[in-house]
Structures are given as structure tokens and as C-alpha cells.
Design goal:
about 475 residues, alpha+beta, Cathepsin D, subunit A, domain 1, nine-stranded mixed beta sheet, three-stranded antiparallel beta sheet, 10 helices, CCHC-type domain-containing protein, DNA/RNA_pol_sf
């Protein structure tokens, strides 16, 4: 407030000047804070060789040693003094490495293994163990099994020790040791899992087979409802160079192996004989990332254990013989009456077979209603009964059309042979209104001419020709 007095200055001017002063102080503080925070970045940026300022040869203020060929000035910023804290130390623990034993599994002596044991009589037990546990004869039992003092849940077989004071040379050379198989690990990695189609649906229990050779997981289509599948074609090449294709894929479903261990995935659909789901490498990789540990008798996840089950399936495929019998019983018929009694959806009620014919209308023709010539009481009763039957079967329906055509009965030779007269309707006025005939009947000569090149023949019986 240079050249002004407080006594002569109004309150509005004083208020505005105070606000401008405070704003100026805030801007200066923000500027200084920005310089303080970006000082470390500028210090590192100045160390880059392309940003360094080179000294001139005749610059007396250069402090670079004379031995250096490149004279570059370095700008150093003073670091803020801070309290020095001790550095954190990392402690490492020695890893436990299990070494392979060098002691014989049978006689307990060092220097050889059970398959090379000089005690030929005692070495016969090796063949019994390998035959009972499906282990190769050339494998070292010392690296596969470990001896226990008492029987536990992990015990696989038990050897009976017959100690005797007699000399081994007098014993029977064909003597066999008592071998009892207690618990064998299942060779087929199959577990019981639950599939949730959606968040609020009940789980579906299936038997899952682990196959590391499968790139994608495949599910039996009978497990999920048809609304959960979408068309999707994917082709695979098997190990024998044969091709295998799938036609459908499921919506994302949740697969639960353990509590709090779910995997959301889309499964391919294909019929699997004797299997519900084949768990491929795509799901196995996700289980591995969740730290699910495979063992010889099941899967381990934290404190939960999922044992292997016997090869089974919860969804059986219907045999071909039963399907054939069902098709013959439900679809095949000896007559039209038998067919109508078995077919719940007749052909004339199936919307897939409805055809819409876009006719060109003749605008010069107007709707006509001709007077009926009259029928005998016998023909009128017959027509009323026939129309009621056709309407009950759904072949005809009441109409409110502006057109009315004449109807009468015909009793020709074919009708006389059949023993029933035929109802005929004269649609000539209506045909004149529909000018073009896009679906006319083919010529008889043209039909026989096309028979020579035809490969497929079909027959369709109509209830009435008119």
C-alpha cells in the first residue's frame, strides 16, 4: 500500500488487497514445494550424458582432472539431511534335500540294492512286491518306499518277518515271504468335483478325470441343461494324427474342487464314453497357480485333501439298442391313425414347415360371394360332419375372409372304389385374383425327363387333393 493511508482507504479495497496478498503467498509456497519435490528427479536427470554441459578447453573454472578426455560439469544438489535408519536384513534357511539311500531294502547292507542282492532266496520278495504294486522290476525300491515301525494310513504293503535260529542253507529254496497289500494308490487320477451352472443353482456332482495330454477340458453335454450350451466348432489333432472336433461350448460355469477353491471356465461339449468330464491342461494350470498339490492318492490344497476315486461316471449314455426301440415305439406307425395318435405335434401345427407365398394380387378383381346352389340333406349332413372333424384335428379354422367359393361333392370312379364322396371347392374366382402362379405343378413330360438324373426320391401323401 504505497502512497495510501489506512484512514482514507475503504474496507472493500483493504479486503481485495488482503486476498491478493494471500493468493500470492500461496502461489509462492506451491512453487517452492514443487521445486523441493522435483529436486531429486532433476539431480538424477543431470547425470544423463546427453544432458551434461561440456566444459570448454579455455574455461578456467573447470575442475575436471587433466587425464580425462571428456570435461563435463556436474551439478550437485544438496541432499536433505535425514535420520539414518538401519538396513533391513534378509534371513535365508537352508533347503532340505532328500538324498537317495545306498542301503539294500532286503538285507539292510550297504553297497548294493535289492535287485542286486546276493541273497537270492530273499530277493524273490522283490518280484512279489513289484507284481502287487505295479512297479517296474528295474526300479529301486529304496527310492520309492520307506520303512515304518507301525502301520498307518499311508502304509501300502506289509512284510511278514519270520525269524528262526536255523541256518538259511536248510530252508526251502522255493519259500515265499508273506506279502499283504494294504493300500494301493489308484493309478487313475479321478476325483469327485461339483459344477455350478450359475451362482444360485444347485451343484452338479461329476467324476473328473485329469488328463495332462488334453489341451482343453471337455464335458459330457448331458451334465448341463441345453440352455447352457452354444454352437462352437473347434478341431483338435490327436497323438495318432487323427482329427477330433467339438460342436458346442458351454457358458461360463464354476468348478469347485475344494472349499474356497473355484474356477470359472467355459467347457467344450462332446460325448465321452464312460466319463463325465475330462480336465485338460487349461484347468490344471489354474489349479497349479492356486497351489493345489497333486499326490499319489489325491489332491492337497492347504489343509484340505481330495482323494482319488474309482473310475466311475454319474451320467450314463443311453445305449443304441434302447434308442432304436424308443424311436420305433414313438415315431413309427402302420397307418395315419396310428401316426396321429403317437405324434404330439402334427406336421400342420409345426411352424418350422409353414411356407409364406408372396402372391401378386390382381387389383382389377374384387371379392365375390356367389350364392350357394344348394345341397341335398344327405350331402349337407356329410359336409357338416367332415368339416367338424377337420376343425377338430386342426386342419382348418374359421375365417372372416371377404371371399366365398362354391362347394359340392364329387362321386367319380375313385370315390366309388373308396366308398366315400369327395368334397370339392371351386377356387377359380380366387385364382383369378392371385394373378401369378409361382409354384405351378410341373409338366408330366418334364418330370419323367428329370428322373434319369435324380438321386433322391420322396413321397408325401396328402389327406385330400383339393
Amino acid at each position: 500500500m504505497k502512497g495510501q493511508f489506512l484512514g482514507t482507504t475503504s474496507f472493500d479495497k483493504l479486503h481485495n488487497m488482503v486476498l491478493r496478498t494471500l493468493k500470492k503467498l500461496c502461489n509462492q509456497r506451491a512453487f517452492l514445494t514443487d521445486i523441493h519435490t522435483t529436486g531429486k528427479k532433476l539431480e538424477k536427470a543431470c547425470e544423463r550424458p546427453e544432458l551434461k554441459i561440456k566444459c570448454r578447453h579455455n574455461d578456467k573454472s573447470c575442475s575436471c582432472p587433466g587425464k580425462k578426455k571428456r570435461h563435463i560439469k556436474k551439478f550437485k544438489f544438496k541432499k536433505k539431511s535425514s535420520r539414518s535408519f538401519p538396513k533391513k536384513r534378509r534371513f535365508f534357511r537352508r533347503k532340505f534335500s532328500k538324498k537317495k539311500g545306498d542301503r539294500c531294502f532286503i538285507c539292510g547292507k550297504k553297497g548294493h540294492f535289492a535287485k542286486d542282492c546276493p541273497e537270492q532266496k530273499k530277493a524273490k520278495i522283490l518280484k512279489q512286491i513289484c507284481a502287487a504294486t505295479n512297479i517296474d522290476d528295474e526300479a529301486d525300491l529304496e527310492s520309492i518306499f520307506s520303512e515304518e515301525d507301525e502301520q498307518s494310513s499311508n502304509t501300502i504293503f506289509v512284510l511278514e518277518d519270520r525269524a528262526s535260529d536255523t541256518d538259511d542253507s536248510f530252508s526251502d529254496p522255493d519259500e515265499y515271504y508273506g506279502l499283504q497289500v494294504v493300500n494301493l494308490s489308484l493309478s487313475v487320477p479321478m476325483v469327485e468335483i461339483k459344477i455350478f451352472p450359475s451362482k444360485y443353482d444347485r451343484p452338479i456332482i461329476v467324476a473328473g478325470l485329469f488328463d495332462t495330454g488334453a489341451a482343453c477340458s471337455i464335458l459330457n453335454p448331458t451334465v448341463l441343461p441345453s440352455s447352457m450350451w452354444k454352437p462352437h466348432r473347434q478341431i483338435f489333432q490327436a497323438a495318432n494324427n487323427e482329427y477330433f472336433s467339438t460342436e458346442i461350448i458351454s457358458k461360463p460355469v464354476s468348478i469347485r474342487f475344494f472349499p474356497n477353491c473355484k474356477i470359472s471356465h467355459r467347457l467344450l461339449g462332446s460325448s465321452l464314453p464312460g466319463k463325465d468330464i475330462v480336465i485338460g491342461f487349461d484347468i490344471i494350470q489354474q489349479l497349479w497357480s492356486k497351489k493345489v498339490i497333486p499326490k499319489y492318492n489325491g489332491l492337497q490344497y492347504k489343509s484340505h485333501f481330495l482323494p482319488y476315486i474309482r473310475p466311475t461316471t454319474y451320467f450314463f449314455m443311453t445305449s443304441i439298442h434302447s434308442l432304436k426301440e424308443k424311436l420305433i415305439r414313438d415315431c413309427c406307425a402302420e397307418s395315419h391313425t396310428d401316426f396321429l395318435s403317437k405324434c404330439t405335434n402334427p406336421l400342420w401345427k409345426n411352424s418350422e414347415f409353414f411356407v409364406s407365398l408372396p402372391f401378386k394380387l390382381n387389383e382389377d378383381a374384387n371379392p365375390t360371394k356367389s350364392s350357394h346352389t344348394g345341397m341335398s340333406p344327405e350331402h349337407l349332413q356329410l359336409a357338416t360332419t367332415e368339416l367338424a372333424n377337420l376343425q377338430a384335428e386342426g386342419l382348418i379354422e374359421p375365417t372372416n375372409s371377404q371371399w366365398a367359393c362354391q362347394a359340392f361333392y364329387v362321386n367319380k370312379r375313385a370315390e366309388q372304389v373308396r366308398g366315400k364322396m369327395r368334397l370339392v371347392i371351386d377356387y377359380k374366382p380366387l385364382n383369378h385374383f392371385l394373378a401369378d402362379d409361382k409354384f405351378s405343378l410341373p409338366n408330366r413330360k418334364a418330370l419323367f425327363a428329370n428322373l434319369s438324373t435324380a438321386k433322391m426320391f420322396s413321397k408325401f401323401d396328402l389327406k385330400a387333393g383339393f
